[in-house]
Amino acid sequence: MDNYLFFVFMSILLIILPGPDTAIITKNTISNRKAAGMKTTFGTLTALLIHSLAAVFGLSALIVKSAFLFSILKYVGAIYLIFLGCKSIMILMKKQNNAPDVNDQQTKYENRSFYRQGFLTNLLNPKVAVFFLTFLPQFAGTGDNALLEFLALGLTYTVLTLFWFLIYIYLINLISEFMKKPSTIRVVEGLTGGVLILFGIKLAFEQN
């Protein structure tokens, strides 16, 4: 395995860059406390493991090389991000209209969907598949152990992602008294909804 420490360093830099995963984890942590952020994180990690295995067994290459499959994954991912963004804005509007019964039902639904949100947000992002297919091979060997090294790099990236989001969620909770004020939550939900919609539109118009 070539330049493993450099791979770790580069992975950390890439992981801390904000993206759809960070946006949804931020929203769920602030709106529904640390447990929600952790469930969302584990959904993201599960998707990363699937992307790692897909890269090892060549499925990512198939998706990247097939314009049809890539486009399907891209548009489904974009629609899902836009859906999450619109839902966040709708929740904000309902709270502003003081609809407690609807909010209670929405909260129960959200409690069941945190993991799914993290999972689908990452899994349906074809850019993650492209990343695993183009970034990891630069650090894996070409010998008999290439597949094992590839898998080890994917697991390393997943573990680093876990550590980063654990730290990130902890930092959010350090300022929870301010961040969990109703006015702050409303701002975060509105901003996150807008950001997710923008991520979805950007993904939809991303070139293959």
From TrEMBL:
Mainly resides where? membrane
Statement: the UniProt record of this protein carries the keyword Oxidoreductase: no
- Which keywords has UniProt assigned to this entry? Cell membrane, Membrane, Transmembrane, Transmembrane helix
Q: Which domain of life is it from?
A: Bacteria
- Topology term for the membrane: Multi-pass membrane protein
Write down the InterPro entries for this protein, in alphabetical order. LeuE-type
Q: Which Pfam families match?
A: LysE
List locations, semicolon-separated. Cell membrane
This protein's record includes keyword Hydrolase: no
Chain ranges passing through the membrane: 6-30, 42-63, 75-93, 114-135, 155-175, 187-205
Put simply, this protein is called: LysE family translocator
Naturally occurring in which organism (per UniProt) = Cytobacillus citreus
Q: Give the source lineage, highest ranks first.
A: Bacteria, Bacillati, Bacillota, Bacilli, Bacillales
